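Support case: user asked for a sample of complex input and structure output to validate their parser. Sending the pair below.
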Amino acid sequence: MAERAEHNEETGSVGHIAPAKLYVAIWAVLMVLTLTTVLVSMVDIGPMNIVVALVIATIKGTLVVLFFMHLRYSPKLTMATVIAAVFWLFLLLSLTMTDYLTRAWSTYPGH
Amino acid sequence: MATAVQIVERENYLNSNYGIKSWLLTTDHKRIAVLYLISITAMFWLGGFFAMMIRLELLTPAGDLVSSDTYNKLFTMHGIIMVFFFLIPSVPAVLGNFLVPLMVGAKDLAFPRVNLLSWYLYMAGAITALTAMVTGGVDTGWTFYTPFSTTYSNTHVIGAAIGIFIAGFSSILTGLNFIVTIHRMRAPGMTWRRLPLFCWSNYAAAVIMVLGTPVIAITLLLVALERAFNIGVFNPQLGGDPLLFQHLFWFYSHPAVYIMILPGMGVISEIVCCFSRKRAFGYEFIALASIAIAVLGFLVWAHHMFVAGISVYAALVFSLLSYLVAIPSAVKVFNWTATMYKGSISYNTPMLYAFGFIGLFTVGGLTGIFLSSLGLDVHVHDTYFVIAHFHYVMVGGMVMAYMAGLHFWWPKITGKMYPEAWAKLSALLVFVGFNTTFFPLFILGYMGSPRRYHAYPPEFQVLNVLSTAGASILAVGYVLPMIYFVWSLRYGADAGPNPWNATGLEWMTSSPPPTHNFDETPVVTWEAYDYEHQPQEEITVGH
Ligand code: HEM
Ligand SMILES: [Cu+2]
């Protein structure tokens, strides 16, 4: 894979032809995951509902980006860009949570 | 010493073809830079007009010139125009567009058409926002805090928000273009360690633009959606949280203040080296400090929310992280001064502005540290102290840097020299006017005068009058360059390729540069700012 990325960097080409079978397989996985999301939403597992939905959505997004958007065959700079974007989203969420998760801890007893 | 007097007028990007269409459909980064220059200058005057209205109202304690509603709209429109339509595009979209390809030795940016698109998006955003202003105005402050902008809003918030949303894409595209250009299009031999610091700092700003701008765009879209369709995001009655807006807004808008200062820092690095005839002291540190600022700048946003009701524990974390940003900022200031140490300094206009920048940015940055301390911020939050702080960094810092850069590269952009004596006078007026306008605001804020009111207690009048008087001086300082820059287009002396005897690839091509920048691709074998190995020639103009 590293080889392929280098090759791309040299020729500057972004084209990569993956076998059609692969695309069909990914599509099938996406459909199964979608079905799972729908089914899980019908059972009440409390706060876990949202967790499961988000995890599945993340997996689906990753598949789309890696294969349909050809990230897997892209130059390192493109990968770095995507990783940075995900990391920045993580910063946004985690630092915001420092507020939401600790807002209720009271500083003074009785408050 | 007369460098290359041009007898036959060489073909350049300005005279290669004529007509309005050749400008509006151009993909030449230099012409797009000029388009931006004209557009943001118009916005600067509009924003300046609102500022003068604000200062005139504050001349007297009574709210007599305009009603409180009008006053709210004035400061909102001033803020929106100056931040989103002037300062953010100022150095990147004008000087960056013009210079980044020249400095790396490329023929153009990586995506010339996308570059033109970014200008059209900017214009579309500006026109949308201006329409909202003309048809009734916005009164939420440039920060669009909920619930002012949602539940209690009675003005054209959606229009203004959409305008900023559209302009946001223009800034993303510019950032993208810079990143790809700097990564992929450097001339042979132009390694990262030889890259001019202007490119490094624009690169850092570009990273912020690309990673941060989507967040503000989506946030404003959420406000619009909540208003239009009652989807609960920020409104507690609909299950939302108003503080979530502030988190999302500042996640972009604090880093955005670094979009507004980093490119300016790049300008200062170029100018300080050139007019001290020295290599940059601690080149690597200056370069990496830009990256450090870009990253750390994303970790401090809640310092705008200390008194808004966020968790005290989160506030502690954000306070500490805010202190950390000061370190790379200080690294730069110390390195500029160390660069000047024992240099052979000449006091041309760009350097005068650079001096102004260094002093005023330091004041602005240090008062940022005051504001980041939890105890002090409770006292001065939402007072004129904050106004003074950010005007020191934004106007004292970035606008000074922009002016410095315009003077420094004007000969390259137009091929003409500006009149040095007038320019020095204007630099002086700007410096004096700026401090007279904004220093009193520190005192006012410290004494507890809140921002965003059109009336104030009579005991605050003296300082307010001082500030308004200063603003008039400042205005003269900004009008002068407007006049002599235009004057120089016709009457200015020919600049020649390198009037400052500066290093950097942009100075190795003719002024104004030919459409394709270089006759042949340059090959770089030297480090940036190799002034010590250059023949010690005098700067050729401006004595
Ligand atoms: C040394 C780095 C800096 C630190 C530690 C810092 C810290 C702060 C803090 C804590 C506040 C919030 C004050 C309050 O509302 O009570 C603030 C406000 C502000 N700062 Fe800075 N700052 C720094 C640099 C800058 C720079 C470089 C700029 C712009 C170029 C800037 C622009 C602003 C603006 C626009 C506001 C006010 C926003 C508003 O409420 O309208 N700051 N700063
Ligand atoms: Cu901030």
